[in-house]
Amino acid sequence: MEKHHIIPLCMKGKNNFKNVVTLTPEEHFIAHQLLVKIYPKEFKLVYALHMMAEQSYRRNNKEYGWIKKKHSEINKGENHPFHGKQHSKESRNSQSRKMKGNKNRYKDKRVIANGQIYNHYIEAAKELKVGPRTIKNRIKNPKFPDYSFLNKSMI
Question: What are the backbone angles phi and psi of residue 132, rounded to the nearest 5°?
Fold first, then answer.
């Protein structure tokens, strides 16, 4: 059994026993679906239903599709929590440094794969007819001792 506020807290309902009913999980889910149908622009109601729907045992595919669509609709434009705001310059610079670091991480590293030396992991991937991510994963995985980055001391 689950507790449900008759008048939702986000709609100025009180958090007291007069405003709470006990429902089965199925009834609780349906109650939230009905609230969203009645108040489709109430962000917190849509969000609550969306969070309930993430628990797969509470929904079927049609319900889930409907819920995801409502959640997407209410998060567009002026309703989006970040609408009209900007990341600070410090935040943008931090993200930029992180992204640059990810791109250049393997830039100049040579790779050894199955005894063959390659100038880059992408070259190894093309030659071995696998994806670049596969090469990186094999380098990290101890089950593939024949895959590694070539250290400068090995040259």
Answer: -55, -35
Q: Which amino acid is at 87?
A: H
Tens-of-pLDDT digits for all 155 residues of the chain?
788 999 999 999 999 999 999 988 778 888 999 999 999 888 899 888 888 877 655 556 577 667 777 878 887 888 777 788 888 889 888 888 777 755 555 666 788 888 899 988 888 889 898 888 888 888 888 888 888 888 655 55
Q: How far apart are CA 128 and CA 113, in angstroms?
A: 9
Q: Would you list the domain boundaries of the chain?
A: 2-78, 111-154
Q: How far apart are CA 77 and CA 83, in angstroms?
A: 6
For the record, the structure tokens of 141 come out as: 């995985």
Give the residue ranges of DSSP H helices in 22-151: 25-38, 43-53, 61-74, 89-104, 121-128, 132-140
Q: Which of 77, 18, 74, 82 is nearest to 45 (CA)?
A: 74
Return the closest-CA partner of residue 116 out of 84, 148, 78: 148
